[in-house]
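Researcher: We're teaching a course module on how sequence relates to structure. For the next exercise, students receive a sequence and then see the predicted structure as tokens, so they can try to spot secondary structure elements on their own. Here is the exercise chain.
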Amino acid sequence: MVMVLATGISGCATGAKAPAIPRDRNEALAQANKFYADHEYYNAKSSLKQVLDKNPQDPVASKMMADILDKEIERQKEHLLPRAAEEMDDDEKQNEIKTWMERSRALFAAKQYDLALFAAEKVFLYDGESAIASELIDQIKAKALKEGKAETLFVHKMYKEEISDRLQQYRQQAEDLVTKGQFGQARFTVEKVLLLEPEDPQALTLYQRIVAQEEQMEGAGR
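Model: And here is the predicted structure for the students to work with:
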């Protein structure tokens, strides 16, 4: 499996120092704003996590997280050149690992256990013996089992097929929405695919078509 350029999704500068731990909500938000302005999206999300860990419903932090996701998706469509994991250096691989772990934890927190597991397993493309990914996978499976939602998590082949089917449904839904001229909904649906398969060529091509159509409509409305 190939992936888009690491710099296209992580937003974390190679060799950058970890941000200082903020003292309170306001400092965390200010810190996140600064990182966001500097296009350091991974660090911005790390700062926002300090707020969301205490209050997952915080409106300001939640809105900024959504904005960062939009920026990451924009970056993905700009970096269409496939690149195999074995071609990346250690820093690039670490950035990919951070991105997929962060994505998996967010899905886990939202109780989307199958998708969280899918994201966590992506880490093994860059580190086949990742202890942090293994630990998170164990947590996901344990929580899913406890809540009676583990039926697909322990049958690996079935699980993979289920995710593949879901992604294909999203692609088809997006195509149908584009045909109907519902570009905003189509873009949101394509983003669901890109969250789990950032290198998906069909989704990336469709995303570009949607953005082009939106820009054309915006220009015509002026």
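Model: If you want an answer key for the exercise: The first helix runs from residue 25 to 37. The radius of gyration is 18 Å.
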